[in-house]
């Protein structure tokens, strides 16, 4: 046709998915010479024919000669009962691609592992983006995760999640609005659970999937996320993927490929999705996970989900008993912190301290558990175990690869604990280091302006 496409006319097709891989281009450049004359009726921002290759391939079997200008309605979008006729008109497309062949193979293997043991970890939702509609979608997705009993955190201010926030075992992450992966998502040592779902809403989040520093999809795949999606060019908010619909479909037992089709409002547009289309993260129910005989690295987070389920039924005592029994089988810092909080709610400080004292046996804290370790130290300090809290702060401050924002917080709070236990030299040293970090983070011009203001 006029665009150079070879047309396929299919009397009947029963392809479940079309899967693109390395070698199939990611995006199509806009060509103003191929804009049809009748496109003048469209708003100017939609008079474009650039877009996602995968989104065009979805229409490969369509009978009509379709324009590439602007977009077409996706018949799968928010449609639980798609008629057979419409199923034949479009093909669901997913991509297996990333920064390296090894990263993509790992994605497939870890997706299968997640199906075998169930998705395990916590859920994180970062709102505070530029438009309320996007915040509404991400909040709704967070509420779905909570309803599925995931231990869930929300960041609702304009400050984006970073190393100061808890982000251990990120089974589900959804946020916006940074142009490229930053902070924890650029850290190669971060422990991401098998099958993890990662989504960052940004207009150009998928301009590259090969880079580990540009955009979002490549860095997420590199770090170990197994399901992600985004845009190759500006989609405009109303026509991008709906994260709440995506998670809704997965939680109902759907596959990644189905969830992408269900949550994508337009074809012949900007969307691309990376993941095994047959991946079913919630193939196992929570009760099925609890009955598995084999313990995995993230097994304690399954315990946390059951604790949340029991709490939702109003049975805090049963939740606490269950957590303590499981803690004896598989102790972890996250579970110790949870048990301490449950005892704190019941005004049982001695029992809370008993759970927290696990920390004395830990000499090294993985980078993704350091915020939890700091929270444990703060609880210890609050309950009078300041010496142990000081020991934890000393280990954390001396850890390798602390991000500046986290190190600054550790130094400031650690100095207070050090002073409490009489470690005055350390308190002074940590306070001085915190001051130096702050000065280093302040642009020279800003410091000069501050001096002149004084």
How is the secondary structure organized here?
Elements: E1 18-21, E2 27-28, E3 51-52, H1 53-57, E4 72-73, H2 84-89, E5 93-96, H3 101-117, E6 122-126, H4 132-147, E7 152-155, E8 170-175, E9 197-200, H5 217-223, E10 228-231, H6 243-251, H7 256-263, E11 266-267, E12 271-274, H8 286-290, H9 299-312, H10 316-329, H11 333-345, H12 349-356, H13 370-382, H14 386-397, H15 404-420, H16 424-441, H17 444-453
Parallel strand pairs: 1-5, 6-7, 6-8, 8-9
Antiparallel strand pairs: 2-3, 4-11, 10-12
Helix pairs in contact: 4-6, 6-7, 9-10, 10-11, 11-12, 11-13, 13-14, 14-15, 15-16
Task: Give an overview of the whole structure.
It is built from 17 helices and twelve strands. It has 454 residues and is α/β, with parallel strands linked by helices. Strands 7-6-8-9 form a four-stranded parallel sheet, covered by helices on one side. A two-stranded parallel sheet has the order 1-5. Helix 4 (132-147) links the parallel strand 6 and strand 7. The longest helix is centred in the last third of the chain and has 18 residues, at 424-441. The radius of gyration is 25 Å and the shape is globular. It starts with 17 loop residues before the first strand and ends with a helix.
Strand content: 5-15%
Strand order of the largest sheet: 7-6-8-9
Class of secondary structure makeup: alpha/beta
Q: What's the shape?
A: globular
Instruction: Give the count of helical stretches.
Output: 17
Radius of gyration: 25 Å
Low-confidence stretches: 450-454
Average pLDDT, rounded to a whole number, is 93
């Amino acid at each position: 046709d006029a665009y150079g496409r070879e047309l396929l006319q299919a009397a009947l097709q029963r392809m479940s998915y079309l899967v693109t891989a390395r070698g199939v281009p990611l995006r199509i450049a806009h060509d103003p010479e191929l804009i049809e004359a009748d496109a003048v009726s469209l708003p100017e921002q939609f008079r474009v024919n650039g877009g996602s290759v995968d989104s065009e391939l979805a229409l490969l079997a369509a009978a009509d000669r379709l324009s590439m200008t602007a977009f077409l309605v996706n018949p799968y979008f928010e449609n639980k009962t798609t008629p057979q006729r419409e199923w034949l008109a479009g093909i669901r497309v997913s991509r297996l691609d990333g920064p390296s062949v090894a990263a993509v193979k790992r994605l497939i293997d870890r997706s299968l592992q997640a199906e075998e043991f169930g998705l395990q970890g916590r859920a994180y939702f970062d709102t505070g983006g530029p438009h309320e509609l996007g915040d509404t979608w991400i909040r709704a997705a967070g509420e779905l995760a909570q309803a599925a009993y995931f231990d869930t955190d929300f960041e609702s201010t304009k400050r984006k999640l970073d190393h100061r926030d808890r982000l251990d075992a990120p089974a589900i992450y959804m946020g916006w609005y940074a142009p490229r992966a930053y902070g924890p998502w650029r850290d190669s040592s971060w422990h991401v659970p098998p099958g993890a779902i990662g989504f960052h809403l940004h207009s150009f989040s998928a301009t590259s999937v090969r880079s580990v520093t540009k955009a979002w999809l490549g860095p997420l795949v590199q770090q170990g996320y197994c399901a992600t999606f985004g845009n190759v060019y500006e989609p405009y908010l109303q026509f991008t993927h709906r994260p709440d619909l995506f998670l809704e479909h997965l939680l109902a037992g759907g596959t990644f490929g189905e969830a992408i089709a269900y949550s994508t409002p337009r074809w012949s547009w900007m969307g691309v999705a990376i993941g095994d289309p047959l991946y079913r993260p919630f193939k196992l129910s929570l009760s099925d996970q609890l009955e598995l005989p084999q313990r995995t690295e993230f097994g304690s987070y399954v315990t946390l989900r059951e604790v949340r389920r029991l709490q939702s039924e109003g049975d805090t005592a049963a939740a606490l008993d269950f957590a303590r029994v499981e803690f004896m089988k598989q102790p972890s810092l996250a579970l110790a912190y949870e048990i301490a909080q449950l005892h704190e709610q019941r005004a049982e400080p001695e029992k809370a301290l008993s759970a927290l004292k696990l920390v004395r046996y830990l000499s090294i804290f993985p980078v993704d558990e350091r915020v939890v370790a700091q929270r444990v130290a703060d609880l210890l300090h609050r309950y009078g175990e300041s010496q142990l809290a000081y020991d934890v702060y000393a280990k954390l401050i001396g850890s390798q690869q602390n991000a500046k924002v986290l190190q600054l917080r550790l130094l400031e709070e650690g100095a207070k604990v050090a002073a409490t236990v009489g470690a005055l030299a350390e308190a002074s040293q940590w306070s001085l280091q915190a001051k130096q970090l702050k000065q280093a983070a302040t642009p020279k011009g800003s410091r000069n302006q501050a001096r002149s203001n004084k």
